[in-house]
Fold:
Amino acid sequence: MADAGKLDKFAVARALREMGTLLQLKGENTFKVRAYENGANAIERLSEELATVIAEDRLEDIKGIGASMAEKVTELFRTGTSAVLEQLRKELPPGIVELTQIPGLGPKKVQKLRELGIASVAELATACQTGALRGVTGFGEKTEQKLLEGIKRHQAKPAGGEQRTLLVQALEVGERLLAHVRACKDVVHADLAGSARRWRETVADLDIVVGTDNAEAVMAHFVRFSQVATVDSRGGTKCTVILGNGLQVDLRAVPPEDYWTALHHFTGSKAHHVKLRGLARERGLTISEWGVNLVDSSGKAGDKLLVESEADLYKILGMEYIPPEMREDDGEIEDSLAGGTTDDLLKLGDIQGMVHCHTVFSDGKNTVAEMARAADAMGMKYLTITDHSPTASYANGVQIDRLKQQWDEIAAAQESVKVKLLRGTESDILGDGALDYPDAVLETFDVIIASIHSRMKMSEDEMTKRIVTAMRQPVFKIWGHALGRLLLERDPFACRVEEVLDAIAESRAAIEVNGDPHRLDLEAKWLRRAKQRGIRFVVSTDAHSTAQLANLRFGVAMARRGGLRQRDVLNALPFAKFREAVRPA
Ligand code: DGT
Ligand code: CA
Ligand code: CA
Ligand code: ZN
Structure:
C-alpha cells in the first residue's frame, strides 16, 4: 500500500507552476520555465494514483518528467513543499507574483519595477498615479494609463462571485471527461449539456446528462476521472465535482427513456425554456426535466408522451427543430413556429477555404509553406495569407518592399500543395477610416481583411464614423474581428453597430466571424441583425500557427449561433466563386 502524501496531485501541480512563474521572474531561460509547466500538466493529468507512481518509482516513465522534476515532485508529495520553492519564495516577495497577473506586465517589466522598489500592485498603482514611472525606459505615459486600467480590471475580478471560463478551455477538459463517462459500460447515452452544448463563448460550469439504468455505477465511474479534485455532492441522480482547474461539473443521471427530455432541459437556455413552456401550456401540454405530459381537465399532469429525440419534442409542440446553438430566445422560437427550417444552418463541412491566416512574415509562428500544407491536410480548397500591414509595426507588419518577397514565397509554396493560395492582407483601419497601403497596392491583393488594432478608445461618434468610412472605401474588404473584444479581458469598443451595418449593406464589404476562441467577434446578436440586411460573411480562424487552424469549429459555432446559412458565407463557396466575390477591385 502506497503512503498517502502531504499534497494531492493538483496541489503538486500548483506548486510546480508557482516555481515556473518565480523562475521566469528571476529571468531563467524559457526551456527551464516550460519544463515546470509541462511537469505540472503531466502530473495533473495522471490517470493513476500519484502515491502509487511514486511508491513504484515510475515518475520518470511519464512524458514530460525528467530526473530532477521527479525529485521535486516526490519532495512536494512527501513533505508538502520543496527547498527550491521555499528559496524562491524567500527571494521574491508575494506581491511580485500578483504583479505578473496585471495585463501588460511581463516578467521583464516586473523585474524592472523591482529594481525601482515596486513590489506590489498597491505600490504600482501609486507609482502610476504620481507619475513616478515617467522617464523609465519601457514605461511611457501610455503604459501608465494601460497599467492603471489593468489594475482596475484586476481588482474588479469577482472574488467568489461568478467566474466564467473560456469555452475552449472548458471543452478541452469537458470532451475528455465525456469520453471517460461514455467508456462506462452502464452508460446508454451521454452528452455535454448547458452552455457548453450551446457553444456559448464562456461557461460558468459544465453539465453532463447520462441515460442509464444504473446511476450509482455511472457516478462511481464519473468521480474516478483523473482530473477530479473534489467531490462536492453525490445524490441518487445528481453528482457535482470540482476539477483541478477549478471548473465545476454537474452530472445528472436519468433512466434511458427520459434521456432526450432531460438532455433538452439541461441544455437550456433558461429563457428558451420559459418560452417553450408557455407554448406547451397553450397546447394542453406540460414540459419539465422529466418529460412531456398531457394536462388533464383538472390542470394536473396526465399521461406522459413518448419522446425519442429532441426533434420529437419540437414536433410535439408543432415546431421545426432548433439546434442547441440557437436556443437563446433571440427570435429562434418565432422563426421555428413560422415554419423556418434550420436544416441549412452552416456546418463545419460547408467551409471550403481558410480565410485570415498569419505567417512568420508578420506575427505568425509558421511559414507560408507550413500553413499551406496544414490547410491542405485538412482538405481545404483554398487559403488566404493575410499578414499585418505596415502600420501594425508591433506585429511586424509587412512593408511594401517585403510584399514581393512574400508573393514569391506563396508562388513557391503553391508548387507543392493542392490547396489554392491567395495573396491577402490584414490591413489596419487607420484613425480616419482610411486603409493601410496605397490604393494602387490594395488593388493588387486577392483579398483584404480590414481590422482595427489601435486607437480603440475613441468616442462612439468618432468610432462609428471611422468604421463607416472604412467600409465605404471602394475596394472590397472583410471587416475583421469587428468590435475588438477579448473575452473576459476587453469589452467591444463603443460604436453604433446598426449604423455600421447599414453602411456595409450598401458597400463592397463583408463581415468576419472570427473563430479565435478569445475573440469570437462579431457576436451572434449582431450577426442576426447583419444577416437581416443581406450582408455576407466569412468564417475565419485568424490563425497565427498551423495548430490554430483547428479553431475553425469555434467560428462555425458562432456563425450558427447567429443563424447563418451556408449561402450567407463566402468561404462556403468553391474557389473560383470565392475569389470573384472578394476581389478587391
Ligand atoms: P452557465 O453554466 O452559466 O454557463 O449556463 P448554463 O445554461 O449551462 O446554466 P446552468 O449550468 O445553471 O444550467 C444548465 C441548464 O439547466 C440551463 O441551461 C437550463 C437548465 N436549468 C437550470 N436551472 C434551471 C431553472 O431554474 N429553470 C429551468 N427552466 N431550467 C433550468
Ligand atoms: Ca452550465
Ligand atoms: Ca450547472
Ligand atoms: Zn487582427
User: Anything to note?
Assistant: The chain is about 40% helix and 15% strand. The chain has a mean pLDDT of 93. The two ends are 74 Å apart (CA to CA). The first strand starts at residue 165 and ends at 166.
